[in-house]
TrEMBL record, chain B:
<dbReference type="Pfam" id="PF00732">
    <property type="entry name" value="GMC_oxred_N"/>
</dbReference>
<keyword id="KW-0285">Flavoprotein</keyword>
<dbReference type="InterPro" id="IPR036188">
    <property type="entry name" value="FAD/NAD-bd_sf"/>
</dbReference>
<comment type="similarity">
    <text>Belongs to the GMC oxidoreductase family.</text>
</comment>
<dbReference type="InterPro" id="IPR007867">
    <property type="entry name" value="GMC_OxRtase_C"/>
</dbReference>
<protein>
    <submittedName>
        <fullName>GMC family oxidoreductase</fullName>
    </submittedName>
</protein>
<keyword id="KW-0560">Oxidoreductase</keyword>
<dbReference type="Pfam" id="PF05199">
    <property type="entry name" value="GMC_oxred_C"/>
</dbReference>
<dbReference type="InterPro" id="IPR000172">
    <property type="entry name" value="GMC_OxRdtase_N"/>
</dbReference>
<dbReference type="GO" id="GO:0050660">
    <property type="term" value="F:flavin adenine dinucleotide binding"/>
</dbReference>
<dbReference type="GO" id="GO:0016614">
    <property type="term" value="F:oxidoreductase activity, acting on CH-OH group of donors"/>
</dbReference>
<feature type="domain" description="Glucose-methanol-choline oxidoreductase C-terminal">
    <location>
        <begin position="434"/>
        <end position="553"/>
    </location>
</feature>
<dbReference type="InterPro" id="IPR051473">
    <property type="entry name" value="P2Ox-like"/>
</dbReference>
<feature type="domain" description="Glucose-methanol-choline oxidoreductase N-terminal">
    <location>
        <begin position="105"/>
        <end position="321"/>
    </location>
</feature>
<keyword id="KW-0274">FAD</keyword>
Length: 173, 570
């Protein structure tokens, strides 16, 4: 019964950057609507701006277009403990405060450069609350984005069936 | 009214009763019905019908609310089952929740169960190696447990019989430690696995790396199409139930096959309380069943009783089957019932990297991996521990995506993943030694929700296991180094017994009724019409996965039982 554990070991060995098998991930905007929202409306707006800053719309939709903010709310509400839920909420407040200090506007009113700079600042922050907030939100944003129907269907071409396994194929240059 | 009971008794009487519908129960049911016996199959859990009752099998990754992750409520409520690798958002419905069937952990034991039609055959990892004569002669040679009453030759034709029907993929490797079977096309190797295989073959005479043998239809035959099954689609989400029947399960194979005979009555939600022993007739006459919904007790009667409740629950049922003749459990003249339970040691693993073959990669998914058969203490005792271990092995290449950026840069790197290097990994599967001190018993006061005594489990690792872990790590490190693997890391996850899901014994087979429960036909020495062909019957545990052996024992035992019944012997 251990094959999957071996896979997990492999995943661990590369620092968690492995592409997880399809079953391990996935959501749709429809499936993640919360009965009772975790965050107040203004914080959801900030969260949407944060995920849109982490993965913006370019010639393809960004994280906000794919409702990643909703996925994050849902996962944090259902799968994480109260301190983490509070940390998400407090982090959004912190982010707005920092935005006011740095560029004199709420976070979502900043331009792309201002917002990216601010989130990078959070990543390097020595303040535990700031660092923990971005450490939670960024991987969840990446997960929600990469496992969205849009990205899996149109950009990464996930194939459910027929599956196959070719053991030795040349690396595409 | 006088006739009512007689009618009820007639209505509840069958030729045979099978307790349990998992891998071994499914086979018992198939074989009994094929031989024309009206067979009642009792399953304590709910019905799970092939395809229609696999709610997540066709869900796309993005359709899971929490991308597969378990919610905090589920994890908090289920600390035991949450440890199981196959338990996630897509499979929650197939595992027994911790509160559903409480038990007493006299020593830490993670009991992993699937209560539904099909049992754990729905979620198993599908490795199906034959056991070899080294496994069946081991106890006699090493002096642990008791001698098996059979040898490999007794089981070989039955292995062939079940393999052809179940559909087993594998390669004919010609090894005496792992006899060849009736194989469908083997799965493909990747470059680094082939590299490892060649390096090991050139450096060791007695160590082999082979492709795993697994219950997958890689190249289905007519008999599989006749079951309504189709080729494996390499989805690697087997534990959700496979709508193609691409892997073997009771649900896709043996149970519907038995149903087709018109001889099977399947009764889900039927918790077996005990087996009824008739002192005058000197045999078992039926079973007592508690309806899981109504909690009403009903008796069912039959000439033959096959107990296939899965190892520990089979022990529980026999222990709870008390009569004047058998005050310590049905057929328990030897006093060995519940004792000499053993399992497989999965604690240790190893990982590494390989910087060759960088021009090649893999494409797709494979529901199987290479396997290293036991090489320790095979021909002679050569270490300071008894028995040995097999090992899984696999290599893979993954995308190492740079996630350090932010904004458009990050998006760019996420959508253009870079191919990382090769990663290799292995885990051990060690044979643990059956000991009297590893036992299960009934708790004297605690009851389960049906009023049945809770099972008390006292099973632990010993010094032999610790030495074996050390040896696996040393030998595997040497083998990884020999293959040029680098960045080698060892792990011992110190997991509890039970999480291996290979618990066996307690109703062991043996030649001597004084020291064993079952004879060479899996028949209770003392109660000739009761047969046990699941993991409970195993005298020792081998280093191989046990499921295929349960299948072979079930088919063989039914064949004997029906012949014996016709001769009036049972």
């Amino acid at each position: 019964m251990e094959r999957r554990n071996a896979l997990k070991t492999l995943a661990g060995a590369v620092g968690g950057l492995i592409a997880l098998p399809g079953w391990a991930s996935g959501w749709t905007a429809e499936s993640v609507r919360l009965a009772t929202p975790l965050l107040p409306a203004d914080q959801v707006e900030t969260l949407a701006a944060v995920v849109d800053t982490i993965i913006p719309a370019t010639d393809t939709p960004g994280a906000k277009d794919l409702n990643v903010q909703q996925f994050i709310q849902k996962v944090v509400a259902d799968c994480y403990d109260k301190p983490t839920q509070d940390m998400l909420s407090n982090g959004l407040v912190l982010t707005n405060d920092l935005a006011q200090k740095t560029f004199g506007k709420p976070f979502n009113a900043g331009d792309a450069t201002q917002r990216v700079t601010l989130l990078k600042q959070l990543e390097q922050s020595t303040d535990p609350a700031q660092a923990a907030f971005i450490k939670l939100v960024k991987p969840l944003t990446i997960r929600g984005y990469l496992n969205s129907e849009y990205v899996m269907t149109n950009l990464t071409h996930y194939e459910f069936i027929p599956g196959h396994y070719n053991g030795c194929v040349p690396v595409k240059k | 009214m006088a006739n009512f009971n007689i009618d009820a008794q007639a209505l509840n009487t069958y030729d045979a009763i099978v307790v349990g519908s998992g891998i071994s129960g499914g086979w018992s049911a198939k074989e009994l019905t094929a031989k024309g016996l009206r067979t009642l199959v009792l399953e304590r859990g709910r019905d799970v019908r092939h395809i229609t009752d696999y709610p997540t099998t066709n869900m796309q990754p993005w359709e899971f609310e929490h991308r597969g992750q378990l919610t905090k409520d589920v994890k908090d409520a289920n600390p035991i089952i949450s440890k199981c690798y196959a338990f996630y958002e897509g499979t929650e419905q197939f595992f027994v929740k911790d509160a559903e069937h409480p038990y007493v952990q006299e020593k830490p034991f993670d009991w992993i169960r699937g209560y539904q039609v099909g049992g754990k055959s729905l979620m198993w990892a599908r490795q199906t190696q034959r056991w070899s004569d080294f496994d069946f002669t081991g106890p006699a040679r090493d002096g642990f447990a008791v001698d098996w009453p059979i040898r490999y030759a007794d089981l070989a034709p039955w292995y062939s019989y079940v393999e052809k029907f179940a559909g087993i993929t594998g390669n004919k490797d010609g090894l005496d430690t792992l006899p060849d079977g009736e194989f469908l096309t083997p799965h493909e190797w990747n470059c680094v696995e082939t590299h490892f295989q060649k390096q090991i073959a050139s450096k060791y005479k007695d160590r082999h790396v082979i492709m795993g043998r697994a219950a997958h239809l890689t190249s289905p035959k007519q008999i599989h199409y006749d079951q309504g099954r189709a080729q494996c689609q390499h989805r690697t989400i087997c534990e959700r139930g496979c709508p193609f029947g691409g892997y073997f399960s009771s649900n896709s194979s043996t149970i519907p096959w038995a149903a087709k005979t018109g001889k099977m009555t399947l009764r889900p939600n039927s918790v077996v309380h005990s087996i009824i022993y008739d002192e005058k007739k000197g045999r078992a006459t039926g079973v007592r069943v508690i309806d899981a919904n109504t909690k009403q007790m009903t008796e069912y009667y039959a000439r033959l009783i096959f107990v296939n409740a899965a190892a520990l629950n089979t022990n529980l049922i026999l222990l709870n089957s008390i009569s004047t003749r058998f005050p310590n459990g049905l057929g328990n003249d030897s006093g060995t019932l519940g004792k000499y339970v053993a399992f497989h040691n999965y604690r240790a693993g190893i990982s590494g990297e390989y910087d060759g073959n960088l021009d090649m990669t893999t494409d797709g998914r494979r529901p199987n991996s290479p396997y290293i058969p036991r090489f320790r203490n095979v021909y002679k005792q050569e270490t300071n521990f008894l028995r040995g271990y097999a090992a899984g092995f696999q290599a893979g290449r993954s995308s190492d995506t740079d996630q350090s950026g932010m904004g458009a840069d990050l998006k760019q790197s996420l959508l253009n993943p870079k191919l990382g290097g090769w990663h290799v990994g292995s885990h051990m599967m060690g044979e643990t030694i059956p000991k009297e001190s590893n036992y299960v018993a009934l708790d004297s006061s605690l009851k389960d929700p049906y009023g049945i005594p809770q099972l008390k489990i006292a099973i632990a690792y010993d010094d032999n296991d610790e030495k074996m872990i050390k040896d696996y790590q040393e030998q595997m490190t040497e083998m990884f180094q020999a293959a040029g693997f680098t960045n080698i890391r060892l792990r011992d996850d110190k997991r509890n017994p039970g999480l291996d899901i290979h618990e066996m014994g307690g109703v062991r087979m043996g030649k001597d009724p004084k020291t064993s429960m079952l004879n060479k036909w899996n028949q209770l020495h003392a109660v000739k019409n009761v047969f046990v062909t699941d993991g409970a019957s195993m005298t020792s545990t081998s280093t191989q996965n046990p499921s295929l052996t349960y299948m072979a024992f079930s088919a063989r035992s039914v064949d004997y039982a029906v012949k014996a019944m016709k001769k009036g012997l049972v």
